[in-house]
Amino acid sequence: MSFDPAAATKAYVDSLGPAALAKAEAYTTGNEWLLLAGLIVSAIVTFIFVRLRLLDRLDARLAKRGWALRTWLISAAFFLIAAIVTLPWDIYEDWWRETAYGRTGQPLGDWLGQSAISTVITAIFAGLFFLGVYALIRRTGKRWWIWSGALAAVAVSAMLLVSPILIEPLFNNYKPVPPGPVRDALVEMAAKADIPADRIFLFDGSRQSNNFTANVSGLGHSARIAISDVAIGKASLDEVRAVTGHEIGHYVGGHIWRMIIVFAALAALLFFLADRFYPRFARAFGSDATIGEARGLPVLMFFVSFFALLATPVINTLIRIDESEADLYSHRTENLPDAFATALVKTAEYRSPRPGAIEEIIFYDHPSVERRVRVAMDWKAAHPANAPEKAK
């Protein structure tokens, strides 16, 4: 009997069982509604800041300070205060709901501690970023949005460079994969792609999440591939190879650089639109601050949230392209389509595997599990006995 990719795909997805599929669909649908809810929360936060004139009062208190220090302090204060205001919502969205769906076993105290660290880091660096934006508004006139897009590219590049070294270790413990068959396989795979063996790490992702994950992070000499202990614990050796092959595909494909370029272009578009529409948003919230004043940051950040929601389909589509390319790299170099499929099915526990076409385009930053498994099965049908190709 000839191999049927469609039947094999259906069998893999159905192996989850009706209850798990229904739970995954409910979880995914809820996440999609949370995008709209998040915009509403952002509007409420903006309303609170404007109506209570929180940043206006801080601006008045800091009137004798230099412009740069005052602007940074006001910007950083916004992110700190906003985090406090939204804490109940964040607990619900990022901890309680994840716990209810079995996606995390992290104690609330640990979650709060890590959130506090994240908030401080965000306040410091986002404050510096917007200090740069406001300086560009002052110095470059009507073209400030172009320069701000370039600033966004520099900021993202800098964060990607230092994150694996200075930031990620604050949240997780990264260490070399222990000696054994898994490490031997990963070292061999890395060598084919000219990746130093000391750039492959195991991290305690189970601290925050029960999700089956791996990632590529960093830039240049700080770039690395990291595999969660959840993935190692749940996966067979072939599944580890298939998933790591995908992550190596991101590394070899230079997807981080592509992401930086896309982010810079979107940031420039965002600031261009903000330059045109900010006054309307400010009037709607009752703010008299101009776009060049730090006390108007709450309105500007609401515009960022609004733009990000509208741009979601575009951003997700671009990310899906990278993910598809990384999948293909894994198939081409490892030729483990069945292991890749079984690994993907594990991720379907928290990402509904069978979304509608429109739902996938709008909300999915990865191709659906069903689509990715089908590609793997099509690859299997076309390459039933082929040895893996060398990395290209």
* Net shape: globular
- Tally of DSSP β-strands: 4
Count of separate DSSP helical elements: 15
* Helical content band: over 70%
Please identify the structural class as seen in this structure.
mainly alpha
The arrangement of helices and strands along the chain is HHHHHHHEHEEEHHHHHHH
| Biggest β-sheet description | 4 strands, mixed
Proportion of β residues? Answer: under 5%
Structure description:
- With about 400 residues, the chain is mostly helical.
- Helix content is about 70%, strand content about 5%.
- The protein has 15 helices and four strands.
- A four-stranded mixed sheet has the order 1-2-4-3.
- Strand 3 (about 215) and strand 4 form a beta hairpin.
- The two termini are about 35 Å apart.
- The model has no long low-confidence stretch (mean pLDDT about 90).
Layout: helices, strands, pairs:
Elements (H helix, E strand, L loop, with lengths): L4 H10 L3 H35 L1 H8 L5 H19 L1 H14 L7 H33 L3 H24 L6 E3 L4 H12 L7 E4 L10 E4 L6 E5 H6 L2 H16 L2 H31 L11 H38 L2 H11 L9 H7 L5 H14 L10
Parallel strand pairs: 2-4
Antiparallel strand pairs: 1-2, 3-4
